[in-house]
3-oxoacyl-ACP synthase
Amino acid sequence: MKKVYINSISSITAQKTFDNSEFLDEVIIHEDQVIFAVEPVYKDYIPPAAARRMAKGIKMGVVASKLALQEAGLEQVDAIITGTGMGCLRDSEKFLSGIIDNDEQFLTPTSFIQSTHNTVGGQIALELQCKGYNFTYVHGSNSFESTLLDAKLQLELDEAQNILIGGVDELGDYTTKLNKIIHHIKDEKTNSNNLLDSKTKGTVFGEGANFFVVSNKKQDTSYAEVVSVEMYNTLSQNDVAKTALNFLKENNLTVEAIDAIILGNNGDVEFDGYYNELTSTAFSNTQQVCYKNLIGEFFTASPFGLWIASKILKTQTIPEALKRNHLGTASFKNILLYNQYRGENHSFTLLKTC
């Protein structure tokens, strides 16, 4: 089977990450329960007339995909695979509000048409005139990992050579209010520097789009090799460390071979214990990296972790803002990523230098 490489990366988040020449050189400190994406100038990438008809999630996805293709030096790909937790949430809310406000009559279909989860993938395909495989995964916080696994299998079997993958989610006003009511969002405003040490329930919500071109052809500019991806719907907290060690064993690696572990801690006192099981035991002497305090929590926040891992392996540096501990690791060859959300949809991803 062929190897799989990450040939380009692109990110739009609550940090200024759309400029790929930087690696969190300037970190924005947030102090709120909900943080919005720092958006590029859309008219530089999308005609203004078209952009006006697009929801925020679509615009973020289209621009992030264009940036990824541009860096990979491609005008076309063999497949487009996207992941999303909630789809085009704002259009969904707009359509449902219209049903209520108009007493279920005289509804315009535009919001409904654009509210479907596969709208982003479809829009990207229309822009590229790509008639290849186009699929969208909606698997909660494993949505992006599902796209990565799908692409990896196709590339290993040489069914495709270049695949565009990505994860997109946007914030919606009504859904945000509901998450505050059920305490999935913190009751109090929290400084992003202190979020991961929080002792209260809930987290800070965010939004963003992260896209990658993965290929079975290595380039001189490739970021990393995707070694393995594994997902679990449920895991007990006591089994997390054992599962991580088994995952490494399956890939003929030990804990000592892992140069950094990238974790999805989000400051929720109820569920950060899953990460603490790893950091306090098997990976206590490994460089630990956290990122959700910078961009917020959303179903497709984990691909930002992949963006970080790719950057670390290529630049051989870790920005101070990401370090959860300080071990002064000299070089980075193997990086393990672990993510879960509210105790479900656990994923392990292994990258190595190429």
Remarks:
- The chain has a mean pLDDT of 95.
